[in-house]
Amino acid sequence: MIYKTFQFKTLIYLLPALFIFLVFNVLPGLTSLVLSFFDFSGFETNLFKKFAGFDNFIKIYEDKYFWIALKNTFLFVFGAVFIQTGIALILSIFIFFGNFKFSVLIRSIIFFPCVLAPVSVGLVWKKILEQDGVLNSILGLDYSWLSSVSLVMWLIIMVNTWQWIGYSLVIYYAGLQSLNIELLEASDIDGANWSQKIFSIVIPLLWPTTILNMILNLIGGFRAFDIVYVLTRGGPAHYSEVLASYLYYYSFAAGGPNKMGVGAAVAFVIFACILTIALARIIISKRIERN
Amino acid sequence: MEGSLKNNYGATFKKSPVFFILTRVVILFFIIIIIFPLLYTLSLSVRSPDTVYSARYFLIPYEFSLQNYYDAFFYAEERLKVSFPRMFLNSIIVTTSSVILIITLSIFAAFSFSHLRFPLKESLYNVMIASVAMPAQVLLIPLFYLLIYFGIINTYTAVILAYAGFLIPIGILILRMFFEQIPGELTEAGIVDGASDFQLLMRILLPLAKPAIATCVILLFLDTWNEFIYAMIFMQDPTIHTVPVGLAKIGTSRYHINIGTYSASVMITIIPVMLIFAIFQRWFIAGMTMGALKH
Lengths: 291, 295
Known about the structure:
The structure holds two protein chains of two kinds.
Chain A: H1 11-35, H2 55-62, H3 64-97, H4 103-111, H5 118-129, H6 134-139, H7 152-177, H8 181-190, H9 194-205, H10 207-221, H11 226-231, H12 243-251, H13 260-290
Helix pairs in contact in A: 1-13, 2-13, 3-7, 3-10, 4-7, 7-10, 12-13
Chain B: H1 2-9, H2 11-15, H3 17-45, E1 55-56, E2 60-61, H4 67-80, H5 84-115, H6 121-132, H7 140-149, H8 156-181, H9 184-192, H10 197-208, H11 210-226, H12 229-234, H13 243-251, H14 259-293
Antiparallel strand pairs in B: 1-2
């Protein structure tokens, strides 16, 4: 600390950032919660004219596509948390212990999709997955992948995993580089083979990194929008809608219902999900600290 | 450092032929999975219009041509009133202004969190940390009306301010951590020499914080360059579309688009990022890892 007490003039450092944060983040965040109790559409100037009580929530509660979107969001989050983290764990261990000559290059290649716009990634895969796309040519099939109600969400999860696997990978790699090597050396002397080492030493030691990756993917999973938007627009018939795309459809989409209040209610649901996760995280980490 | 680690505990990993073959097979498989879609799109984009539906082993064109790239420029302008040079210019304007604004304000704010006293400091900091987890879509509807109210909807400023509000907390988080790691003796020496708080920040802390600032710039560059939903909704005028918005319009338009033209459009957005990544890849990986670890 530079000064022993609070100096009024030093507020000048904080205020510009604080002002923008409050006006363009906190204010709209709180307004969003309030707006979910009002009925308004895209062209109104006074948003707070028609108080709607819980109507917006009742509306989404009764809409089967909301439940599909909610289920899809959880499925997507599940895919990001378990599939993406799991594959990244295996890959990072293989690259780290595999004595590859070009391990840096391998990491860079797998990481590269992370720096691309999800829109570009979605469009690359869209052409591949289309009925006359190359996937069908390779497999010798004639299947319309993105029109399949049962498969479409898994394909979106696959494309998302394809893009972000490298992100989880480099975080794991950082964890591996800071691993305590003494245990591994001791197990060398004990004559443990490679699979025993991986399963009983490396993976348990990487547990904190695994938690970090899971939390990052959990939070990231609720953001999914771009990939869904370019790949399917929530289709076929809203069966690949996630909460964020459902919000967009209800509030902004051309040809949609243009019900902003309902969109705000969906935002409320997303907010509640993230808040629950954040609270759970605090409670769990406190319990771990106590033990 | 990596090399010495390997020699230490690679021993039993090295000895096992099963492990050796397994790692090669798995890694090769994933490398192919990662590279193939990109190479395939590149391949489609450089095929001549007559041979676009066929290639050796799906990848090697029978006839090379850059015709698709010409067509992509025309298609965007004729059909959708967006142009690639314009899209890139818009993205460059939005990205550089956002990054400069966010970095500058975050440096000053992080300094006040790390080296100055003010009431409610830690509560405010916790609010900022909590806001990092919120998805951008939660703010979408109120922000839309707020920007209309300020009369800046459909301008660069709309998106720049929205990005700033959303990303300033991350900047402050990373820079505060870094400022606090700088040894107190350095600033104390400065105070003894009679340096003002501003001089301490500019002459002592900032020069040492260059790596943290580089990390922030990379994270913010990626977040703002690739951002889609704010840019799409707050800048609906086609002349100010950013690259992802313009590309999404091309890729999902209802007009017929030749698959070669489509692929060339996608590649136009990927190739520049690929070149920048090739030059700064270590920085990108280090930056994104650091950004994650500080959550």
